[in-house]
């Protein structure tokens, strides 16, 4: 339990010692008058560990650098079908949290995330019609998306395990806004170099249309990935250890 120190008649609530099961996690007193700030700082301090996946000597999770995403499917009928697989994303550990709102009574965490730049690579299988051009191909994919912002809401719940109370993410809502992006798809039009170059140029000149179709699948994939990561971390400590009185 945290200690109370009262110098100059001002009250400060100090965090208790780190958890033994995940010693690199900074805990926050549930009575902290600025709980949102404390939670933000706790996540920021965890950033290097999230990047490598090494939370402590005894506990590891899949690393954020690079972040492996599940397959993203886009399907808007016969005119727009695409699958992106074996995706590796570089840069997610550079995230910045802003405007965090914490409601411990309802176990809701609401915040903004800013990601300046994400680069990615993977595989694609594409058959789309953009305006008057039919574009198709199967091959390697790479690209960059910049100035990415997301609104995230974590809906959590408590559960009991071996007589102790823990917290987990029940649902994670993610809404992404991507300012701009650039794609490079190898072997469009069965590898015809002229048509492939023209197809990539056309996609990038109309990237807003492409990004708008890509976003829902990206939101689902990120939500599933980060929900699993959050739950892996939170099951290492009880609710009272993470948010002591």
Automatic annotation (TrEMBL):
InterPro entries the UniProt entry points to? Haemolymph_juvenile_hormone-bd, To_sf
A GO biological process held by the record: circadian rhythm
Q: Does the keyword DNA-binding apply?
A: no
Naming one, the record's GO cellular component terms include: extracellular space
Write out the entry's keywords from A to Z.
Biological rhythms, Signal
Assigned protein family: Belongs to the TO family.
List the protein's name: Uncharacterized protein
């Amino acid at each position: 339990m945290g200690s109370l120190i009262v110098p100059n008649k001002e009250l400060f609530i100090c965090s208790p010692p780190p958890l033994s099961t995940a010693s690199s996690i900074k805990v926050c007193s549930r009575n902290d008058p600025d709980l949102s700030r404390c939670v933000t700082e706790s996540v920021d301090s965890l950033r290097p560990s999230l990047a490598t996946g090494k939370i402590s000597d005894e506990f590891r999770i899949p690393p954020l650098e690079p972040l492996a995403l599940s397959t993203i499917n886009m399907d808007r009928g016969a005119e727009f079908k695409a699958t992106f697989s074996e995706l590796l994303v570089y840069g997610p550990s550079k995230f910045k949290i802003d405007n965090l709102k914490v409601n411990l009574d309802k176990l809701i965490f609401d915040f903004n995330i800013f990601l300046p730049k994400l680069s990615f690579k993977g595989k694609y299988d594409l058959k789309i019609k953009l305006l008057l051009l039919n574009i198709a191909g199967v091959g390697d994919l790479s690209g960059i998306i910049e100035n990415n912002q997301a609104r995230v809401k974590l809906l959590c719940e408590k559960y009991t395990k071996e007589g102790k109370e823990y917290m987990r993410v029940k649902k994670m809502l993610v809404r992404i806004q991507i300012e701009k992006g650039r794609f490079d798809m190898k072997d469009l039009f069965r590898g015809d170099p002229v048509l492939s170059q023209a197809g990539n140029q056309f996609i990038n000149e109309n990237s807003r249309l492409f990004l708008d179709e890509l976003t829902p699948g990206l939101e689902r994939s990120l939500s599933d990935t980060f929900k699993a990561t959050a739950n892996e971390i939170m099951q290492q400590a009880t609710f009272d250890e993470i948010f002591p009185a």
